[in-house]
Structures are given as C-alpha cells and as structure tokens.
Amino acid sequence: MTAPDREESLRALYRAFNARDIDTVLAAMAADVDWPNGWEGGRVVGHDAVRRYWARQWAEIRAKVEPTGIRERPDGTVEVGVHQVFRDRGGTLLAVGDVRHVYTFAGDLVARMDVEQ
C-alpha cells in the first residue's frame, strides 16, 4: 500500500468509526489487532474484544475523532494527529483534546494502535 493509499485508508477508518460502522472498521484490522482501551485502561486484542470494548464505550459516551494530519514515521509506523471530542449520552461535553494515534500495519491491515499525548 502506498503512502497516499494508506492515508486515505486511515481517513476512511475514522469516518467509519464516527459513523459507528464497526464492521467497516474491523475489516481494516488484522484478526489479532492489539488496540488500546483508552476509556477503561489497558488493551484489547482481536476483533471480538475490540467490538465489545466499543459497544461498552458507545453505550456510555459519544466520541468523535477527526484526523488533523497523517505522516509516516521513519520506523514504518503511521502517526495520525487527532482532535477528539467526548460527550456523555445526554450530549454534555466531557473532554476535548488533541492526541496522536500511532498505527503499526501488517501488510494492508492495522495490527496495532497506540495513543501518544
């Protein structure tokens, strides 16, 4: 996958996440994806664990994440600057901030994601 293709793939991933289209998001991930549990802490591994994590999260909070910039790092990972807005189920603002999501790929699939402040 070329850098422009990877960038568009990641942008599509964020659009799908914001639309709560979990099947599209999971299709872009390796079966044993290693994903941060930014809401409860720790990590989850595999499609089923990611699906359960997001189901719990989306039942309680509304997260919207928008990429602000994407660049490949020298080590081959891809850094995505992200603007995040979190609201409770009633729409009350809980948090707003900017972080970096760092993706490791296995071929064309996301194998791991890490969050950096």
UniProtKB/TrEMBL annotation:
It comes from Geodermatophilus poikilotrophus. Residues 11-113 form the SnoaL-like domain. SUPFAM superfamilies: NTF2-like. InterPro entries: NTF2-like_dom_sf (IPR032710), SnoaL-like (IPR037401). This is SnoaL-like domain-containing protein.
